[in-house]
Amino acid sequence: TILVLDFGSQYSHLITRRLRELNVYSEMLPCTQKLSELSWIPKGVILSGGPYSVYWDEAPHVDPAVYDLNVPILGICYGLQEIAWQFGKNVLAGEKREFGHAYLTVERHGDGDAGGHVDTLFKGLEDDMEVWMSHGDKLSHLPDDFITIATTSNAPFAGMAHKSKPLYGIQFHPEVTHTPKGKFLLKNFAVDICKARTDWTMGKFVDQEIARIRALVGGKGQVIGAVSGGVDSTVAAKLMQEAIGERFHAVLVDNGVLRLNEAKQVKETLTAGLGINLTVVDASERFLGRLKGVMDDPEKKRKIIGNTFIEVFQETAKKIAEEAHGSDKAGEIEWLLQGTLYPDVIESISFKGPSATIKTHHNVGGLLEGMHLKLIEPLRELFKDEVRELGTNLGIPEDLVWRHPFPGPGIAIRILGEVTAEQVRIAREADYIFIEEIKAAGLYRNISQAFAALLPVKAVGVMGDKRVHDQVIALRAVETSDFMTADWYPFDGAFLKKVSRRIVNEVNGVCRVVYDITSKPPGTIEME
Ligand code: XMP
């Protein structure tokens, strides 16, 4: 395992990601991690970039015990400055920022006084390479016993290495795609210098994870978990089913604001298709009853749906627990399954702390209250695309594996204004047509998320020979890699024309369709 210590750069998690692409297992921990508290010894350590200057009082510093591990260390950007600072304090100059592409010249030392190891980082790479810079400070001198291994016109010490120890620092970011050969550099470090194993594959992950779940839960233990029909919860559920079969109890709460026919479809796929032990609870009326009269406060909708969900889930869990306990095959239900992914884990442990909450994203964290359940999170080491790969590996159908994300509060936050059964019908039918056409046009995977929203206004139209006064559907489709920023999708006119015609013709109560051309920021992806 390669340990990445995170100093808060926006690119830190990409280091872990790139290493895993090289089949090298890697974990990221905050830079303040005490090394004596680690239960494993890494094969190598990478110090990430970060938004600080080592001169600032509040600047974070790595536990100096990292140098006593006697494993190779690579500092990237702030990481390089951190090494330089720890090896000789006054080596930095806070100068003007450098941001963007730069051309790097590699300096090779042959077998000379440095013994050859210093060249390994750039082994097999061209002498000139394009790199991505993003830093404020840079080195003005080398610390003692370090030599230069790369330069740029602006940074004379863009790369350095210790003469006798496997310590390296680079000023640029090898983990981003703007450094085209960066992955080879990371491979040189992880495989050639650290001698990390390159046997991390998804198949291996499945076997390991199933064994780990069985050991954790034991021969009788039972697990409960909510599923939504989305890729994360389905993959987590299938993994549990493979590990402990019927002793995993999946619960799908129909909150009345799922997509058209969704509860029925999810049930079919999960039970008949994947053999998962699933209970579907239709609580639509309770949810819609509580949403009645909530007009213009989206956060209130979220809270109502979140709290009602917890309530229904708890009731169901108690029922299942009683039944399970009564039968002889069973032990107590002691575990709660959550489909937490690595980016969520990083977000909550990162040195920066959790990022500011713009909307309260409801998740099932609060479910634990009063139930004394222990958490089991089989996906917590994986990124989204790895979850998809794992899903395919486990035989989950393609259309589910590639499904667009769908918010917990469902189409309630896509119905602007009051949520009523009739508004739900309109939003659902329009959404169904939009997604059906996107799939038919072969665009579904190019788009990150798409849906129809219902605006709380009426407009005039003419249908047949009659004047109508009906509602307006807004279509939204975005492309994004991280859902933090997003661009609206540039459909061609003929496609939009077709969708608009179908929605107005087929959905009773709609006389106009508009397309949302707001990016995020300043918009958000959802309308509420
Ligand atoms: P926004 O609208 O914040 O959406 O740009 C970013 C991503 O988060 C999803 N989203 C939610 N998911 N509960 C969820 O489970 C929520 O309350 C919620 N609000 C937004 C949204 O669908 C998009 O994928």
Map the helices and strands:
Elements: E1 2-6, H1 12-21, E2 26-30, E3 44-47, E4 73-76, H2 78-86, E5 92-106, E6 128-139, E7 146-151, E8 159-162, E9 167-170, H3 182-193, H4 202-217, E10 222-226, H5 231-244, E11 248-254, H6 262-273, E12 278-282, H7 284-291, H8 298-326, E13 333-337, H9 342-349, E14 374-376, H10 384-393, H11 398-401, H12 421-440, E15 449-463, E16 466-479, E17 487-488, H13 493-506, E18 510-515
Parallel strand pairs: 1-2, 1-3, 3-4, 4-9, 10-11, 10-13, 11-12, 13-14, 16-18
Antiparallel strand pairs: 5-6, 5-7, 7-8, 8-9, 15-16, 16-17
The structure holds xanthosine-5'-monophosphate.
Main location: cytoplasm
Pathway: Purine metabolism; GMP biosynthesis; GMP from XMP (L-Gln route): step 1/1
GO molecular function, one term: ATP binding
